Amino acid sequence: MTTVNAYAAPAPKAPLERTTIPRREVREHDVLIEIAYAGICHSDIHQAREEWGEASFPMVPGHEIAGVVTEVGPGVTKYAVGDRVGIGCFVDSCRECENCLRGEEQYCLRGQVPTYNGDGYDGEKMYGGYSSHIVADENYVCRIPDGLSLDVAAPLLCAGITLYSPLAHWNAGPGKKVAIVGVGGLGHMGVKIAHAMGAEVTALSQSQRKKDDALRLGADHYYATGDPETFSKLAGSFDLIVSTISAGYDLGAYLSLLKVDGTMVTVGAPDTPSSLHLFSLIGGRKTLAGSMIGGIRETQEMLDFCAAHGLGAEIELIAPEQINEAYERVVASDVRYRFVIDVASLR
């Protein structure tokens, strides 16, 4: 074991504070990564505040990690010292179930090992990216292409893949009309990626406040969902809707925006149950689906795609001492569009 610097929540809802945490020694197939940047995801806040059920403390959040390899185990073949790499939402899986074998480790039937707020299969406590270093198996690490700077690449390890996966799976591209609901930390990447895939992109947000941003990011159209005319005007318009909304909302209203055989995918995770009148689906042979991040192979595909198209997250860089302030601003929707921690001062 070695000790590294980190920021941790000592208890539920407690402010994060500077501390030290243990990291395992580098094993045969491990890489040691010096973390350069870590994105702040709203799910970090939910877990640090124990809003998604019982959690493990002290907690070091962070699953949008970008850095540089500084040591490799003797069996490592994929990476070398100096390589630019990233880690997302999980750091291990069973590697044996049907989902793992087809490269969908995020749906591991045994349960993937989360980057933080959980334990490894051997009982090791997992600590996330708000820390100076992390050790991980090479098979759960992705290469960050040279075309992406590490600061804007970090949020791609969650926000980027969360939107890329459903857009790729449901074939967003030329000839498809795609709506991204919510122009925030997740949605702004959805607008960028859907546009780069060649789809006709409509951004839907509560007010007109983010219109200029959405059009700059690649949206062809923008509508405010707070305007009651929007839903009648756009009825039956879209082949695919990806919703990033994380609060309760009227599913039927959004399903009415789909064409026949259209699909609505939710990637937001409201903490309250939703209700749905099934005629909203039956009336147009529509599909309501969900999606959760992506496997390692698809995450690498996403990073390569973003590098090829010059897509990084829109970020506000902060020092570790500003994490608690950033949490409050995220909750207040006062960020455009992702906070990223400059981890250098933790070393």
What does this structure look like?
There is one protein chain. By secondary structure, the protein is α/β, with parallel strands linked by helices. It contains 11 helices and 17 strands. The chain has helices at 42-48, 98-101, 150-153, 159-169, 187-197, 211-217, 229-233, 251-255, 279-282, 296-308, 323-331, and strands at 2-8, 17-23, 30-39, 65-72, 84-87, 90-92, 113-114, 133-137, 142-143, 177-181, 200-205, 221-224, 238-243, 258-266, 287-290, 315-318, 338-342. Strands 3, 4, 5, 8, 9, 16 and 17 form a 7-stranded mixed beta sheet that branches. Strands 12-11-10-13-14-15 form a 6-stranded parallel beta sheet, covered by helices on one side. Strand 1 (2-8) and strand 2 form a beta hairpin. Helix 4 packs across helix 5 and helix 4 (159-169) packs across helix 10 (296-308). It is globular and about 60 Å long. It starts with a strand and ends in a 5-residue tail after the last strand. The relative contact order is 0.16. The mean pLDDT is 96.
